Amino acid sequence: MKKTFIWICISIFAMSNANAQDVSLDLQKRPLFDTIAQAAKWNGMKNKVDVSFGNSNTRYAQDVFPEIKSQNNLTLTAWKGEKLNAQIMVWAKTNVPSIRVAITDLKSNNGHIISKSNSYTGFVDYVITDEFKGGCGYRKPENFDSSLVADPINTMVSSVALKKNTVQPIWVSINVPSNAPEGNYVATVTVNADKSYQLKLNVKVVNKTLPAPSQWVFNLDFWQHPAAIARVHNEKLWSDAHFASMKKYYTMLANAGQKNITASIVNEPWGHQTYDDYPSLIKWIKKKDGSWVYDYSLFDKYISFVMSCGINQRINCYSMVPWKVAFQYYDEGLAKDTVFTEEIGSEAYNVFWSSMLKDFTKHLKQKGWFSITAIAMDERPMPAMQSVIKLLKEIDKDWKITLAGDYHPEIEKDIFDYCIASRWSFPEDVLQLRQQQGKLSTWYTCCTEKYPNGFTFSPPAEHVWLGWYTAAKNMDGYLRWAYNSWPKEPLKDSRFTAWPAGDTYQVYPGPMTSIRFEKLIEGIQDFEKIRILKEQYKKNGEEEKLKKLEIALMKFEIEKLSQQTAEEMVKEAKLILNVL
Protein backbone atom coordinates (compact mmCIF):
# COMPACT_ATOMS: atom_id res chain seq x y z
CA MET A 1 0.00 0.00 0.00
CA LYS A 2 1.36 3.38 -1.00
CA LYS A 3 2.11 5.51 2.05
CA THR A 4 1.39 9.23 2.03
CA PHE A 5 1.27 11.95 4.61
CA ILE A 6 -0.03 15.47 4.87
CA TRP A 7 2.57 17.97 3.76
CA ILE A 8 2.52 21.27 5.59
CA CYS A 9 4.11 24.30 3.97
CA ILE A 10 5.13 27.58 5.46
CA SER A 11 4.49 30.67 3.36
CA ILE A 12 5.39 34.26 3.91
CA PHE A 13 2.50 36.58 3.31
CA ALA A 14 2.86 40.26 3.97
CA MET A 15 0.94 43.35 3.06
CA SER A 16 1.89 45.77 5.78
CA ASN A 17 4.37 43.60 7.70
CA ALA A 18 6.62 40.60 7.29
CA ASN A 19 5.04 38.24 9.78
CA ALA A 20 5.01 34.68 8.48
CA GLN A 21 1.81 32.66 8.60
CA ASP A 22 1.42 28.91 8.56
CA VAL A 23 -0.79 27.60 5.79
CA SER A 24 -1.93 24.00 5.96
CA LEU A 25 -2.76 22.45 2.62
CA ASP A 26 -4.88 19.47 3.54
CA LEU A 27 -5.09 18.31 -0.07
CA GLN A 28 -1.46 18.18 -1.06
CA LYS A 29 0.16 14.84 -0.37
CA ARG A 30 3.73 13.87 -1.10
CA PRO A 31 4.98 10.30 -1.55
CA LEU A 32 7.30 9.19 1.24
CA PHE A 33 10.16 8.36 -1.15
CA ASP A 34 10.03 11.91 -2.53
CA THR A 35 10.17 13.34 0.97
CA ILE A 36 13.22 11.27 1.80
CA ALA A 37 14.93 12.31 -1.45
CA GLN A 38 14.27 15.97 -0.75
CA ALA A 39 15.60 15.69 2.80
CA ALA A 40 18.80 14.14 1.47
CA LYS A 41 19.31 17.01 -0.98
CA TRP A 42 18.81 19.66 1.69
CA ASN A 43 21.12 17.88 4.14
CA GLY A 44 23.70 17.44 1.38
CA MET A 45 24.19 21.19 0.87
CA LYS A 46 27.84 22.16 1.25
CA ASN A 47 26.91 25.58 2.54
CA LYS A 48 24.29 26.50 5.09
CA VAL A 49 22.91 29.08 2.64
CA ASP A 50 23.25 29.38 -1.12
CA VAL A 51 22.48 32.42 -3.28
CA SER A 52 22.30 32.42 -7.07
CA PHE A 53 20.58 33.96 -10.05
CA GLY A 54 17.67 31.80 -11.13
CA ASN A 55 15.36 31.72 -14.14
CA SER A 56 12.74 34.48 -14.25
CA ASN A 57 10.46 32.11 -16.18
CA THR A 58 10.37 29.58 -13.34
CA ARG A 59 8.08 29.45 -10.33
CA TYR A 60 10.37 27.86 -7.75
CA ALA A 61 8.57 25.66 -5.24
CA GLN A 62 9.06 26.84 -1.70
CA ASP A 63 9.97 23.48 -0.19
CA VAL A 64 11.70 21.77 -3.14
CA PHE A 65 15.49 21.85 -3.37
CA PRO A 66 16.28 24.08 -6.39
CA GLU A 67 18.07 22.14 -9.11
CA ILE A 68 19.98 25.09 -10.51
CA LYS A 69 23.62 25.66 -11.37
CA SER A 70 25.03 28.31 -9.06
CA GLN A 71 25.39 31.56 -10.97
CA ASN A 72 26.55 34.88 -9.52
CA ASN A 73 26.81 36.70 -12.85
CA LEU A 74 23.92 37.46 -15.21
CA THR A 75 23.83 39.40 -18.49
CA LEU A 76 20.66 40.92 -19.94
CA THR A 77 20.13 42.84 -23.17
CA ALA A 78 17.84 45.86 -23.22
CA TRP A 79 16.47 48.53 -25.48
CA LYS A 80 16.38 52.05 -24.13
CA GLY A 81 13.06 52.50 -22.33
CA GLU A 82 12.71 48.77 -21.60
CA LYS A 83 11.86 47.13 -18.28
CA LEU A 84 14.04 44.11 -17.42
CA ASN A 85 13.38 41.26 -15.00
CA ALA A 86 15.68 38.88 -13.14
CA GLN A 87 15.19 36.42 -10.31
CA ILE A 88 17.59 35.61 -7.48
CA MET A 89 17.27 32.47 -5.39
CA VAL A 90 18.15 32.08 -1.69
CA TRP A 91 17.88 28.63 -0.17
CA ALA A 92 19.10 27.26 3.14
CA LYS A 93 19.30 24.13 5.26
CA THR A 94 19.12 26.27 8.37
CA ASN A 95 16.85 29.05 9.59
CA VAL A 96 17.83 32.53 8.39
CA PRO A 97 16.30 35.22 10.65
CA SER A 98 16.58 38.01 8.09
CA ILE A 99 17.22 38.39 4.37
CA ARG A 100 17.82 41.84 2.93
CA VAL A 101 18.72 42.89 -0.59
CA ALA A 102 20.23 46.02 -2.15
CA ILE A 103 21.29 47.03 -5.65
CA THR A 104 23.83 49.64 -6.73
CA ASP A 105 23.77 52.06 -9.64
CA LEU A 106 24.41 50.53 -13.05
CA LYS A 107 27.72 51.90 -14.34
CA SER A 108 29.29 51.61 -17.78
CA ASN A 109 33.00 51.52 -18.63
CA ASN A 110 32.85 55.01 -20.08
CA GLY A 111 31.32 56.57 -17.00
CA HIS A 112 27.62 56.55 -17.81
CA ILE A 113 25.26 55.73 -14.92
CA ILE A 114 21.76 54.33 -14.67
CA SER A 115 20.68 55.33 -11.18
CA LYS A 116 19.57 52.64 -8.76
CA SER A 117 16.35 54.63 -8.43
CA ASN A 118 15.39 52.98 -11.73
CA SER A 119 15.61 49.55 -10.08
CA TYR A 120 13.60 47.78 -7.43
CA THR A 121 13.64 44.44 -5.69
CA GLY A 122 10.86 42.44 -4.09
CA PHE A 123 10.46 39.20 -2.17
CA VAL A 124 8.38 36.66 -4.04
CA ASP A 125 5.57 35.34 -1.84
CA TYR A 126 3.50 32.17 -2.12
CA VAL A 127 -0.26 31.65 -2.48
CA ILE A 128 -2.46 28.58 -2.67
CA THR A 129 -3.26 27.49 -6.20
CA ASP A 130 -5.01 24.49 -7.73
CA GLU A 131 -5.04 22.95 -11.20
CA PHE A 132 -6.82 23.41 -14.54
CA LYS A 133 -8.75 20.12 -14.57
CA GLY A 134 -11.59 21.10 -16.88
CA GLY A 135 -11.31 24.84 -16.47
CA CYS A 136 -14.69 26.57 -16.25
CA GLY A 137 -17.42 25.45 -13.87
CA TYR A 138 -18.11 25.73 -10.17
CA ARG A 139 -15.57 23.79 -8.16
CA LYS A 140 -15.05 22.48 -4.66
CA PRO A 141 -11.49 22.77 -3.31
CA GLU A 142 -11.45 19.17 -2.13
CA ASN A 143 -11.84 17.97 -5.72
CA PHE A 144 -8.65 19.68 -6.94
CA ASP A 145 -5.01 19.21 -6.01
CA SER A 146 -3.77 22.28 -4.18
CA SER A 147 -0.27 23.58 -3.58
CA LEU A 148 1.70 26.71 -2.78
CA VAL A 149 2.96 28.63 -5.79
CA ALA A 150 5.26 31.62 -6.23
CA ASP A 151 3.51 34.69 -7.65
CA PRO A 152 3.09 37.90 -5.54
CA ILE A 153 6.10 40.21 -5.56
CA ASN A 154 6.26 41.98 -2.23
CA THR A 155 8.07 45.32 -2.45
CA MET A 156 6.46 46.59 0.75
CA VAL A 157 8.83 44.95 3.24
CA SER A 158 12.58 45.43 3.64
CA SER A 159 13.38 41.96 4.93
CA VAL A 160 11.96 38.46 5.34
CA ALA A 161 12.86 35.40 7.38
CA LEU A 162 13.66 32.06 5.75
CA LYS A 163 12.80 28.70 7.30
CA LYS A 164 15.28 25.88 6.93
CA ASN A 165 14.90 23.61 3.89
CA THR A 166 12.97 26.28 1.97
CA VAL A 167 13.53 28.73 -0.87
CA GLN A 168 13.09 32.49 -1.03
CA PRO A 169 12.98 33.98 -4.55
CA ILE A 170 13.87 37.66 -4.96
CA TRP A 171 12.59 39.62 -7.96
CA VAL A 172 14.74 42.31 -9.54
CA SER A 173 13.36 44.84 -12.04
CA ILE A 174 15.29 47.54 -13.87
CA ASN A 175 13.68 50.35 -15.85
CA VAL A 176 16.24 51.42 -18.44
CA PRO A 177 15.76 55.15 -19.08
CA SER A 178 14.89 56.12 -22.65
CA ASN A 179 17.87 58.50 -22.70
CA ALA A 180 20.42 55.99 -21.40
CA PRO A 181 23.52 55.95 -23.62
CA GLU A 182 24.28 52.74 -25.46
CA GLY A 183 26.80 50.54 -23.66
CA ASN A 184 27.55 47.77 -21.19
CA TYR A 185 26.48 48.49 -17.61
CA VAL A 186 27.21 46.60 -14.39
CA ALA A 187 25.43 46.66 -11.03
CA THR A 188 26.12 44.76 -7.83
CA VAL A 189 23.22 43.07 -6.09
CA THR A 190 23.97 42.37 -2.43
CA VAL A 191 21.96 39.77 -0.54
CA ASN A 192 22.47 39.80 3.21
CA ALA A 193 21.48 36.48 4.78
CA ASP A 194 23.78 34.52 7.13
CA LYS A 195 26.50 36.64 5.53
CA SER A 196 26.81 39.05 2.61
CA TYR A 197 26.56 37.65 -0.93
CA GLN A 198 27.33 39.73 -4.00
CA LEU A 199 26.09 39.06 -7.53
CA LYS A 200 26.93 40.92 -10.72
CA LEU A 201 24.11 42.07 -13.00
CA ASN A 202 25.28 43.12 -16.46
CA VAL A 203 22.98 45.05 -18.77
CA LYS A 204 23.85 45.59 -22.43
CA VAL A 205 21.89 48.62 -23.64
CA VAL A 206 21.56 48.64 -27.42
CA ASN A 207 20.90 51.66 -29.65
CA LYS A 208 17.17 51.07 -30.04
CA THR A 209 14.37 52.76 -28.11
CA LEU A 210 10.97 51.65 -26.90
CA PRO A 211 8.33 54.36 -26.57
CA ALA A 212 6.77 55.07 -23.19
CA PRO A 213 3.92 52.70 -22.18
CA SER A 214 1.37 55.41 -22.89
CA GLN A 215 2.57 55.36 -26.50
CA TRP A 216 2.55 51.60 -26.98
CA VAL A 217 0.37 50.47 -29.86
CA PHE A 218 -0.51 47.21 -28.10
CA ASN A 219 -4.10 47.41 -26.85
CA LEU A 220 -4.11 46.02 -23.30
CA ASP A 221 -7.54 45.65 -21.72
CA PHE A 222 -7.62 44.37 -18.14
CA TRP A 223 -11.00 45.02 -16.53
CA GLN A 224 -10.81 47.08 -13.34
CA HIS A 225 -12.89 46.38 -10.23
CA PRO A 226 -13.26 49.41 -7.92
CA ALA A 227 -15.30 47.73 -5.15
CA ALA A 228 -12.65 45.05 -4.62
CA ILE A 229 -10.07 47.75 -3.81
CA ALA A 230 -12.42 49.36 -1.28
CA ARG A 231 -12.99 46.01 0.43
CA VAL A 232 -9.35 44.90 0.84
CA HIS A 233 -8.36 48.34 2.14
CA ASN A 234 -11.40 48.53 4.43
CA GLU A 235 -12.53 51.83 2.92
CA LYS A 236 -15.97 53.22 2.17
CA LEU A 237 -16.84 52.80 -1.49
CA TRP A 238 -16.21 56.02 -3.46
CA SER A 239 -14.71 57.81 -0.45
CA ASP A 240 -11.63 60.02 -0.81
CA ALA A 241 -9.57 57.26 0.78
CA HIS A 242 -10.94 54.77 -1.76
CA PHE A 243 -9.98 57.00 -4.69
CA ALA A 244 -6.50 57.48 -3.20
CA SER A 245 -6.06 53.70 -3.00
CA MET A 246 -7.37 53.13 -6.53
CA LYS A 247 -4.84 55.60 -7.91
CA LYS A 248 -1.94 53.30 -7.00
CA TYR A 249 -3.48 50.31 -8.78
CA TYR A 250 -4.57 52.22 -11.86
CA THR A 251 -1.23 53.95 -12.24
CA MET A 252 0.47 50.55 -12.14
CA LEU A 253 -1.94 49.33 -14.81
CA ALA A 254 -1.35 52.44 -16.95
CA ASN A 255 2.39 51.76 -16.74
CA ALA A 256 1.71 48.38 -18.34
CA GLY A 257 0.11 50.14 -21.31
CA GLN A 258 -3.58 49.82 -20.36
CA LYS A 259 -5.80 51.71 -22.79
CA ASN A 260 -9.41 51.09 -21.67
CA ILE A 261 -11.52 52.25 -18.74
CA THR A 262 -13.97 49.63 -17.48
CA ALA A 263 -17.19 51.52 -16.67
CA SER A 264 -20.32 49.83 -15.31
CA ILE A 265 -23.40 51.75 -16.37
CA VAL A 266 -25.77 49.21 -14.78
CA ASN A 267 -25.55 47.22 -11.57
CA GLU A 268 -23.80 43.85 -11.87
CA PRO A 269 -23.09 43.68 -15.63
CA TRP A 270 -21.77 40.14 -15.12
CA GLY A 271 -24.50 38.87 -12.82
CA HIS A 272 -22.37 39.09 -9.66
CA GLN A 273 -19.93 36.37 -10.64
CA THR A 274 -17.22 37.94 -8.47
CA TYR A 275 -16.63 38.03 -4.71
CA ASP A 276 -17.29 41.79 -4.58
CA ASP A 277 -20.18 43.84 -5.92
CA TYR A 278 -19.99 45.60 -9.28
CA PRO A 279 -22.23 48.65 -8.74
CA SER A 280 -23.35 51.05 -11.44
CA LEU A 281 -21.58 54.36 -11.90
CA ILE A 282 -24.87 55.86 -13.12
CA LYS A 283 -27.97 56.19 -10.97
CA TRP A 284 -31.17 55.49 -12.90
CA ILE A 285 -34.26 57.26 -11.49
CA LYS A 286 -37.85 56.93 -12.68
CA LYS A 287 -39.85 59.97 -11.63
CA LYS A 288 -43.44 59.84 -10.37
CA ASP A 289 -44.67 61.20 -13.70
CA GLY A 290 -42.97 58.35 -15.60
CA SER A 291 -40.06 60.40 -16.92
CA TRP A 292 -36.45 59.39 -16.38
CA VAL A 293 -33.48 61.13 -14.78
CA TYR A 294 -29.92 59.83 -14.93
CA ASP A 295 -27.38 60.93 -12.36
CA TYR A 296 -23.92 60.97 -13.98
CA SER A 297 -22.05 62.62 -11.12
CA LEU A 298 -20.22 59.48 -10.00
CA PHE A 299 -19.63 58.38 -13.60
CA ASP A 300 -18.03 61.73 -14.43
CA LYS A 301 -15.89 61.74 -11.30
CA TYR A 302 -14.70 58.18 -11.84
CA ILE A 303 -13.90 58.54 -15.55
CA SER A 304 -12.00 61.78 -14.96
CA PHE A 305 -10.12 60.12 -12.12
CA VAL A 306 -9.06 57.05 -14.13
CA MET A 307 -7.95 59.33 -16.97
CA SER A 308 -5.78 61.23 -14.51
CA CYS A 309 -4.05 57.92 -13.72
CA GLY A 310 -3.00 57.59 -17.38
CA ILE A 311 -5.76 55.29 -18.69
CA ASN A 312 -7.45 57.64 -21.11
CA GLN A 313 -7.88 56.32 -24.64
CA ARG A 314 -11.21 54.48 -24.45
CA ILE A 315 -14.25 54.12 -22.19
CA ASN A 316 -16.00 50.74 -22.38
CA CYS A 317 -19.47 50.84 -20.82
CA TYR A 318 -20.94 47.57 -19.53
CA SER A 319 -23.55 46.68 -20.50
CA MET A 320 -26.82 46.68 -22.43
CA VAL A 321 -26.66 42.89 -22.59
CA PRO A 322 -25.57 41.71 -19.14
CA TRP A 323 -25.28 38.08 -18.15
CA LYS A 324 -28.58 38.37 -16.33
CA VAL A 325 -31.25 40.71 -17.68
CA ALA A 326 -32.08 42.58 -14.49
CA PHE A 327 -31.61 46.36 -14.74
CA GLN A 328 -31.97 48.07 -11.39
CA TYR A 329 -33.37 51.58 -11.04
CA TYR A 330 -34.99 53.70 -8.35
CA ASP A 331 -38.75 54.21 -8.75
CA GLU A 332 -39.87 57.38 -6.98
CA GLY A 333 -43.51 56.35 -7.26
CA LEU A 334 -42.81 53.12 -5.40
CA ALA A 335 -40.10 54.72 -3.25
CA LYS A 336 -37.79 51.77 -3.72
CA ASP A 337 -35.29 50.13 -6.02
CA THR A 338 -36.96 48.21 -8.83
CA VAL A 339 -35.70 45.81 -11.50
CA PHE A 340 -36.51 45.85 -15.22
CA THR A 341 -36.45 42.33 -16.72
CA GLU A 342 -38.07 42.55 -20.15
CA GLU A 343 -36.49 40.54 -22.97
CA ILE A 344 -33.67 42.05 -25.02
CA GLY A 345 -35.05 43.31 -28.34
CA SER A 346 -38.61 43.62 -27.07
CA GLU A 347 -40.52 46.87 -27.46
CA ALA A 348 -40.36 47.47 -23.72
CA TYR A 349 -36.59 46.92 -23.70
CA ASN A 350 -36.07 49.36 -26.56
CA VAL A 351 -38.21 52.01 -24.87
CA PHE A 352 -36.36 51.49 -21.57
CA TRP A 353 -32.94 51.87 -23.17
CA SER A 354 -33.81 54.53 -25.77
CA SER A 355 -34.53 57.06 -23.09
CA MET A 356 -31.22 56.42 -21.37
CA LEU A 357 -29.14 56.25 -24.55
CA LYS A 358 -30.44 59.54 -25.89
CA ASP A 359 -29.63 61.25 -22.62
CA PHE A 360 -26.28 59.46 -22.26
CA THR A 361 -25.26 60.37 -25.81
CA LYS A 362 -25.97 64.03 -25.15
CA HIS A 363 -24.04 63.94 -21.88
CA LEU A 364 -21.00 62.23 -23.40
CA LYS A 365 -20.85 64.78 -26.21
CA GLN A 366 -21.01 67.61 -23.68
CA LYS A 367 -18.08 66.05 -21.81
CA GLY A 368 -16.13 65.49 -25.03
CA TRP A 369 -16.04 61.73 -24.43
CA PHE A 370 -18.48 60.38 -27.01
CA SER A 371 -15.85 59.61 -29.65
CA ILE A 372 -13.86 57.40 -27.25
CA THR A 373 -16.83 55.67 -25.61
CA ALA A 374 -18.31 52.30 -26.58
CA ILE A 375 -21.18 50.20 -25.34
CA ALA A 376 -19.46 46.93 -24.43
CA MET A 377 -20.75 43.36 -24.34
CA ASP A 378 -19.12 40.19 -23.10
CA GLU A 379 -19.79 36.76 -24.65
CA ARG A 380 -23.36 37.58 -25.64
CA PRO A 381 -25.33 35.66 -28.32
CA MET A 382 -25.58 37.10 -31.82
CA PRO A 383 -29.38 37.74 -31.85
CA ALA A 384 -29.04 39.90 -28.74
CA MET A 385 -26.10 41.70 -30.29
CA GLN A 386 -28.02 42.38 -33.49
CA SER A 387 -30.90 43.92 -31.53
CA VAL A 388 -28.58 46.16 -29.53
CA ILE A 389 -26.60 47.23 -32.61
CA LYS A 390 -29.80 48.22 -34.39
CA LEU A 391 -31.01 50.25 -31.43
CA LEU A 392 -27.69 52.02 -30.89
CA LYS A 393 -27.35 53.02 -34.53
CA GLU A 394 -30.90 54.40 -34.48
CA ILE A 395 -29.95 56.59 -31.53
CA ASP A 396 -26.71 57.79 -33.13
CA LYS A 397 -24.96 56.23 -36.12
CA ASP A 398 -21.57 57.03 -34.58
CA TRP A 399 -22.02 54.90 -31.47
CA LYS A 400 -19.08 52.50 -31.05
CA ILE A 401 -19.65 48.91 -29.99
CA THR A 402 -17.27 46.52 -28.26
CA LEU A 403 -17.67 42.76 -28.07
CA ALA A 404 -15.57 40.04 -26.48
CA GLY A 405 -16.72 36.61 -27.61
CA ASP A 406 -17.13 34.34 -30.60
CA TYR A 407 -16.46 35.55 -34.11
CA HIS A 408 -19.69 36.37 -35.99
CA PRO A 409 -19.12 37.51 -39.59
CA GLU A 410 -22.74 38.75 -39.69
CA ILE A 411 -22.01 41.56 -37.22
CA GLU A 412 -18.24 42.00 -37.61
CA LYS A 413 -18.53 45.24 -39.58
CA ASP A 414 -20.56 46.83 -36.77
CA ILE A 415 -18.06 46.06 -33.99
CA PHE A 416 -15.43 48.73 -33.45
CA ASP A 417 -13.40 46.78 -30.89
CA TYR A 418 -13.81 43.07 -31.61
CA CYS A 419 -12.07 40.77 -29.16
CA ILE A 420 -12.32 37.11 -30.16
CA ALA A 421 -11.79 34.03 -28.03
CA SER A 422 -8.50 32.23 -28.61
CA ARG A 423 -10.16 29.38 -30.52
CA TRP A 424 -11.11 31.85 -33.28
CA SER A 425 -9.09 33.71 -35.90
CA PHE A 426 -9.95 36.74 -37.99
CA PRO A 427 -10.02 36.03 -41.73
CA GLU A 428 -6.96 37.72 -43.21
CA ASP A 429 -8.92 39.98 -45.55
CA VAL A 430 -11.25 41.02 -42.74
CA LEU A 431 -8.32 41.80 -40.46
CA GLN A 432 -6.65 43.97 -43.09
CA LEU A 433 -9.85 45.89 -43.77
CA ARG A 434 -10.45 46.46 -40.06
CA GLN A 435 -6.94 47.86 -39.68
CA GLN A 436 -7.50 50.19 -42.63
CA GLN A 437 -10.73 51.40 -41.01
CA GLY A 438 -9.03 52.06 -37.68
CA LYS A 439 -10.94 49.32 -35.86
CA LEU A 440 -9.42 47.22 -33.09
CA SER A 441 -9.01 43.47 -33.49
CA THR A 442 -7.88 41.69 -30.34
CA TRP A 443 -8.16 38.34 -28.56
CA TYR A 444 -8.66 36.96 -25.07
CA THR A 445 -8.30 33.94 -22.83
CA CYS A 446 -10.39 32.98 -19.82
CA CYS A 447 -11.17 29.84 -17.82
CA THR A 448 -11.63 27.85 -21.05
CA GLU A 449 -8.00 27.58 -22.11
CA LYS A 450 -5.47 25.43 -20.28
CA TYR A 451 -2.82 27.29 -22.26
CA PRO A 452 -1.79 29.94 -22.93
CA ASN A 453 -3.13 31.56 -19.80
CA GLY A 454 -2.48 33.58 -16.67
CA PHE A 455 -3.56 31.38 -13.79
CA THR A 456 -1.35 31.30 -10.71
CA PHE A 457 -0.17 27.86 -11.80
CA SER A 458 0.45 28.86 -15.45
CA PRO A 459 4.09 28.86 -16.59
CA PRO A 460 5.21 32.52 -16.42
CA ALA A 461 6.54 32.48 -20.00
CA GLU A 462 3.01 31.98 -21.30
CA HIS A 463 2.34 35.63 -20.48
CA VAL A 464 5.36 36.61 -22.58
CA TRP A 465 4.13 34.26 -25.30
CA LEU A 466 0.85 36.24 -25.51
CA GLY A 467 2.67 39.26 -26.92
CA TRP A 468 4.43 37.17 -29.56
CA TYR A 469 1.20 35.43 -30.57
CA THR A 470 -0.55 38.79 -30.92
CA ALA A 471 2.22 39.98 -33.23
CA ALA A 472 2.23 36.72 -35.18
CA LYS A 473 -1.50 37.01 -35.88
CA ASN A 474 -1.28 40.73 -36.72
CA MET A 475 -3.82 41.55 -34.03
CA ASP A 476 -3.87 44.71 -31.97
CA GLY A 477 -3.87 43.47 -28.40
CA TYR A 478 -5.11 41.20 -25.65
CA LEU A 479 -7.94 41.26 -23.11
CA ARG A 480 -8.32 39.56 -19.78
CA TRP A 481 -11.50 39.88 -17.82
CA ALA A 482 -10.08 40.63 -14.40
CA TYR A 483 -7.26 42.86 -13.23
CA ASN A 484 -8.22 42.82 -9.55
CA SER A 485 -11.43 40.86 -8.87
CA TRP A 486 -9.94 39.33 -5.76
CA PRO A 487 -11.31 36.35 -3.83
CA LYS A 488 -11.73 36.53 -0.06
CA GLU A 489 -8.02 36.40 0.87
CA PRO A 490 -5.98 36.93 -2.30
CA LEU A 491 -2.65 37.13 -0.49
CA LYS A 492 -3.21 33.65 0.90
CA ASP A 493 -5.46 31.77 -1.49
CA SER A 494 -5.86 32.47 -5.22
CA ARG A 495 -8.62 29.88 -5.67
CA PHE A 496 -12.21 30.86 -6.41
CA THR A 497 -15.52 29.07 -6.57
CA ALA A 498 -15.92 28.86 -10.32
CA TRP A 499 -12.61 28.97 -12.17
CA PRO A 500 -8.97 27.88 -12.01
CA ALA A 501 -6.91 29.64 -9.35
CA GLY A 502 -5.79 33.15 -10.23
CA ASP A 503 -8.33 33.58 -13.03
CA THR A 504 -9.97 36.48 -11.22
CA TYR A 505 -6.92 38.72 -10.77
CA GLN A 506 -3.41 39.47 -11.98
CA VAL A 507 -2.05 41.72 -9.22
CA TYR A 508 -2.33 41.67 -5.43
CA PRO A 509 -3.57 44.02 -2.70
CA GLY A 510 -0.97 46.57 -1.73
CA PRO A 511 -0.66 47.11 -4.62
CA MET A 512 1.76 44.30 -5.30
CA THR A 513 2.76 43.24 -8.75
CA SER A 514 3.15 39.56 -9.64
CA ILE A 515 5.36 37.27 -11.69
CA ARG A 516 2.44 36.96 -14.12
CA PHE A 517 1.98 40.70 -14.49
CA GLU A 518 5.70 41.41 -14.97
CA LYS A 519 5.91 38.70 -17.63
CA LEU A 520 2.88 40.17 -19.41
CA ILE A 521 4.71 43.51 -19.63
CA GLU A 522 7.74 41.71 -21.03
CA GLY A 523 5.58 40.18 -23.77
CA ILE A 524 4.02 43.53 -24.63
CA GLN A 525 7.49 45.07 -24.90
CA ASP A 526 8.46 42.28 -27.30
CA PHE A 527 5.34 43.06 -29.35
CA GLU A 528 6.41 46.69 -29.57
CA LYS A 529 9.95 45.71 -30.59
CA ILE A 530 8.57 43.48 -33.33
CA ARG A 531 6.30 46.27 -34.57
CA ILE A 532 9.12 48.81 -34.63
CA LEU A 533 11.54 46.47 -36.40
CA LYS A 534 8.97 45.43 -39.02
CA GLU A 535 8.21 49.07 -39.79
CA GLN A 536 11.92 49.82 -40.02
CA TYR A 537 12.67 46.87 -42.30
CA LYS A 538 9.80 47.68 -44.63
CA LYS A 539 10.79 51.34 -44.81
CA ASN A 540 14.45 50.56 -45.49
CA GLY A 541 13.83 47.62 -47.81
CA GLU A 542 15.64 45.19 -45.49
CA GLU A 543 13.80 42.17 -46.84
CA GLU A 544 16.17 39.52 -45.45
CA LYS A 545 15.80 40.77 -41.87
CA LEU A 546 12.03 41.07 -42.31
CA LYS A 547 11.88 37.50 -43.58
CA LYS A 548 13.82 36.17 -40.56
CA LEU A 549 11.46 37.94 -38.21
CA GLU A 550 8.38 36.64 -40.02
CA ILE A 551 9.74 33.07 -39.91
CA ALA A 552 10.27 33.39 -36.15
CA LEU A 553 6.69 34.58 -35.69
CA MET A 554 5.24 31.72 -37.73
CA LYS A 555 6.08 29.30 -34.92
CA PHE A 556 3.62 30.95 -32.54
CA GLU A 557 0.53 28.76 -32.82
CA ILE A 558 -1.53 27.76 -29.80
CA GLU A 559 -1.59 24.11 -30.88
CA LYS A 560 2.21 23.94 -30.69
CA LEU A 561 2.13 24.60 -26.95
CA SER A 562 1.13 20.95 -26.51
CA GLN A 563 4.52 19.95 -27.98
CA GLN A 564 6.85 22.75 -26.92
CA THR A 565 6.80 24.99 -23.85
CA ALA A 566 6.14 28.70 -24.10
CA GLU A 567 9.54 29.33 -22.53
CA GLU A 568 11.34 27.35 -25.24
CA MET A 569 9.46 29.10 -28.03
CA VAL A 570 10.01 32.56 -26.58
CA LYS A 571 13.69 31.91 -25.85
CA GLU A 572 14.35 30.87 -29.46
CA ALA A 573 12.48 33.86 -30.83
CA LYS A 574 14.21 36.33 -28.52
CA LEU A 575 17.60 35.15 -29.74
CA ILE A 576 16.56 36.11 -33.26
CA LEU A 577 15.06 39.40 -32.09
CA ASN A 578 18.24 40.40 -30.23
CA VAL A 579 20.42 39.62 -33.26
CA LEU A 580 18.16 41.64 -35.54
Would you kindly provide a brief summary of this structure?
The chain is an alpha/beta fold and 580 residues long. The chain contains 11 helices and 27 strands.
DSSP helix fraction: 25-40%
Distance between the termini: 58 Å
Reading side by side through the largest sheet, how are the strands ordered?
Answer: 15-26-25-24-23-22-19-16
Strand count, sense and closure of the main sheet? 8 strands, parallel
Low-confidence stretches: 1-27
Overall average pLDDT: 94
Assess the beta-strand content as a share of residues: 25-35%
**Based on helices, strands and strand pairing, what is the structural class?**
alpha/beta
Rg over CA atoms: 25 Å
Tally of helical runs: 11
Please count the beta strands (DSSP E, at least 2 residues each): 27
Described by the principal axes of the CA atoms, the overall outline is globular
Overview of this structure, please?
The strands form five sheets. The chain has an eight-stranded parallel β-sheet. Strands 4, 6, 7, 8, 11, 13 and 14 form a seven-stranded mixed β-sheet that branches. It has a six-stranded antiparallel β-sheet with strand order 3-5-12-9-10-27. Helix 9 (515-540) packs antiparallel against helix 10. The chain is built from eleven helices and 27 strands. The chain has helices at residues 32-43, 226-232, 240-254, 297-308, 347-367, 382-395, 428-436, 461-472, 515-540, 543-554, 566-579; strands spanning 4-11, 21-31, 49-53, 73-80, 83-92, 96-103, 106-108, 113-114, 119-129, 147-154, 160-162, 166-175, 183-192, 196-209, 219-222, 260-264, 283-286, 292-295, 314-318, 327-331, 336-340, 373-378, 400-405, 417-421, 440-444, 477-480, 513-514. It is globular. It has 580 residues and is an alpha/beta fold.
